[in-house]
Automatic annotation (TrEMBL):
Its cofactor is Zn(2+). PROSITE patterns: PEPTIDASE_M14. It comes from the Bacteria. The lineage of its organism: Bacteria, Pseudomonadati, Pseudomonadota, Alphaproteobacteria, Sphingomonadales. This is M14-type cytosolic carboxypeptidase. Pfam families: Pepdidase_M14_N, Peptidase_M14. Keywords: Carboxypeptidase, Hydrolase, Protease. The keyword Protease applies. Residues 111-372 form the Peptidase M14 domain. The active site is at E333.
Length: 372
């Protein structure tokens, strides 16, 4: 049987350069109207009984080449379990071997979170007691901007995930947060719902998610550089969410992402905003310390550098919300590699671990909410 490669599906991305015997040469496709690319997701048919070598030949020119060393491709035969497979990066080529025990196999940069799964999550959560759904607006491709709301408390908490669509671990995190918050037998989250009103946007970039983009929307725009002046023409996703935040105010906000290079979970804050106060900053730092003490799947040693006083980029959501509302705002980054301080040799960082980290974040928020 001949080998065929297909990425013409929800969140798919790959281009076949050539197939010679058992060697499959590929390229990742750029985000539309953008120089960004790194996300890939494709299916291979005709794999049974063959040992195939896959080569992504344009890896060196991707958005974040330092993300490839020590990275492992995720592979699946059922689209449910996504295991790491040994991967090599040399000479600018990302390469791995696959011995097919079934006809079909799927490969991806990280375990995908498709728009079909997103729609199912929204439908399921909208039926939970005390949950309401709002369509905040529409994307450039006409997709709904879904927001799930729950809780009756005076403190408004915003969780929003996947501004960068290729960072699919972010929506797995959002699924975990929603499942924990809707567990009526959980005393921690029930107490949180009495003190807070939660607004959760599981996917900030539906168009990019469906198109198989790494970082941008249908217009080739990086949404996390649009929060100062979003427009209907470039960034309606940010515009409708920020408008909703202006209606409610924001006490606490978490922007959920994935990082290509750093093999650990970490948070980034809002140092350098014009309205910085030490009291506001200490609440951010305390959240990180408490989360690291709570779970081995978080740490505070590795992360991004801090902006100098007055030099924060207010086009980024965490800085904008901290400055605009005085919110305790933060960006959560999860790895495409693994969380090296607590590694998993089979799955690496995974959907289930992303969901469990969301549970830990809620535990820490519950401990701190009275003084946020």
């Amino acid at each position: 049987m001949s080998i065929t490669v297909n990425a013409a599906f929800d969140s798919g991305n790959i281009r076949v350069v050539g197939i010679e015997g058992d060697t499959v040469s590929l390229e990742i496709v750029h985000d539309k109207d953008s120089e960004f690319y790194q996300w890939f997701h494709f299916r291979v048919a005709g794999a049974r009984g063959r040992t195939l070598t896959f080569r992504i030949t344009n890896a060196a020119s991707s958005a974040y080449p330092p993300g490839w060393p020590n990275y492992k491709v995720r592979a699946s035969t059922d689209r449910e379990a996504w295991r790491m497979t040994p991967t090599r990066y040399a000479g600018g080529v990302l390469e791995w071997d696959w011995t097919g025990e079934s006809d079909l196999a799927w490969f991806a940069y990280f375990a995908p979170y498709t728009m079909d799964r997103h729609d199912a999550l929204v439908a399921r959560m909208a039926l939970e007691p005390g949950v309401s759904h709002r369509e905040l607006g529409r994307t450039l491709d006409g997709r709904a901007m879904d927001c799930l709301e729950l809780g009756t408390g005076p403190k408004h908490v915003w969780f929003y995930a996947r501004q960068h669509p290729g960072e699919s671990m972010a929506e797995w995190w959002a699924e975990g947060a929603l499942e924990r918050l809707t567990d009526t037998a959980d005393p921690v989250t029930q107490a949180l719902r009495e003190k807070c009103t939660f607004h959760i946007v599981p996917n900030m970039n539906p168009d990019g998610s469906f198109r198989g983009h790494l970082r941008t929307n249908a217009a080739g725009v990086n949404l996390n550089r649009e929060w100062h002046e979003p427009t209907p023409e470039r960034s309606p996703e940010v515009l409708c969410v920020r408008n909703a935040m202006d209606e409610t105010g924001v006490a606490f906000a978490m922007d959920v992402h994935g990082d290509e290079s750093i093999p650990a979970n970490f948070i980034a804050g809002f140092e350098g905003i014009p309205n910085w106060s030490d009291e506001q900053g200490e609440k951010f730092y305390d959240f990180g310390r408490r989360l690291a003490a709570h779970t081995p799947d978080f740490q505070t040693e590795k992360g991004y550098g801090k902006s100098a006083p007055g030099k924060a980029n207010l086009t980024m959501s965490t800085n904008q919300l901290a400055n605009r509302f005085g919110a305790v705002a933060m960006t959560l980054e999860m790895p495409f590699k693994d969380h090296d301080p607590n590694p998993d040799a089979e799955f690496g960082w995974s959907p289930e671990r992303s969901k469990t980290l969301a549970h830990s974040c809620l535990d820490v928020l519950a401990d701190m909410i009275d003084w946020i």
